[in-house]
Amino acid sequence: MSLIPQALILRGPGTNCDQETSWALELAGSGFTSRHINRLIENPSLMHDFQMLVLPGGFTYGDDISAGAVMALEIREKLGNDLKSFIKDGKLVVGICNGFQILIKSGFLPGNDFAQKTTLFSNDSAKYECRWIYLKKNPKNNSPFLAKLPEIFHCPVAHAEGKFIVSNKKILDSLSKNNQVAFQYVDAEGNPGEYPVNPNGSIDGIAGITDPTGRVFGLMPHPERNIFKSQHPGFRRGNTPGDGAGLRFFEGAVEYIKKEL
């Protein structure tokens, strides 16, 4: 086995953030292979040659039914058992934006049991939100993706269906009890708030969650678009807050994998 972590970037028709994601993975120290979902359906065992599965952003199948729904169905029905085995083996899965929508609607978040308990609905603003927001990580969540991130950082969002909602209060209570909420939308001082601090109206400002192990991670913001200091909107004004924090998101995962190899 290669001592360099290897990530499988899974794309479908309409995926459009795979290249940015591959750059982020490479800068973080990971190798990567990009494959269309049809190739993985033809040979599901291919998945097990990798230590991380990445579902990047975009508009798979045009989001014609609802965002991520078609690819979610394909994953659940055609790749579900292999993906459950992949997760059971201690490997990592991350879904960004459309990838988060896919993990939610396939039932791999919040519990890897094929049961959809939450969804990502149309933004309260009734428009596509494309701008920078602040995120606050949950220090009690043990996900490798969070290990190197600061408590509060800037990150871009770009979505029309990002409002996180749950089917009943028991699910929300369970997410809180198990520390599965990974990110919340906040202001620059770390305080929760209404729109525009919360860009979509998500309950409790939830921007990302994990499964109970912390190894399956879904988030609406795009860390792969914040890997260089020059990508930050304050760059030319000289007030960029450090290097691109999004890179640290991927570095945490890569360092975790290296320890496990």
Structure, described:
- By secondary structure, the chain is an alpha/beta fold.
- It has one domain: Class I glutamine amidotransferase (GATase) domain (Rossmann fold), CATH 3.40.50.880.
- It contains six helices and eleven strands.
- β3, α3 and β4 form a beta-alpha-beta unit.
- The longest helix is centred in the first third of the chain and has 20 residues.
- The chain is globular and about 50 Å long.
- The relative contact order is 0.17.
- The mean pLDDT is 95.
Characteristic key phrases:
261 residues, alpha/beta, Rossmann fold, 11 strands
Q: Strand order of the main beta sheet, please?
A: 2-1-3-4-11-10-9-6-7
Distance between the termini: 8 Å
- Average pLDDT level: 95
Rg, rounded, reads: 17 Å
Q: Which regions contain 5 or more consecutive residues with pLDDT less than 50? A: none
The number of helical runs is: 6
Strand content: 15-25%
Summed up, the domain count is 1
Under the CATH scheme, the architecture is 3-Layer(aba) Sandwich
Say how many strands there are.
11
CATH superfamily annotation: Class I glutamine amidotransferase (GATase) domain
State the order of secondary-structure elements, H for helix, E for strand: EHEHEHEHEEEEHEEEH
At CATH level 3, the topology is: Rossmann fold
Overall shape: it is: globular
Q: Which class do the helix and strand fractions yield?
A: alpha/beta
Instruction: Please write the CATH class name.
Output: Alpha Beta
Summarize the biggest pleated sheet.
Answer: 9 strands, mixed
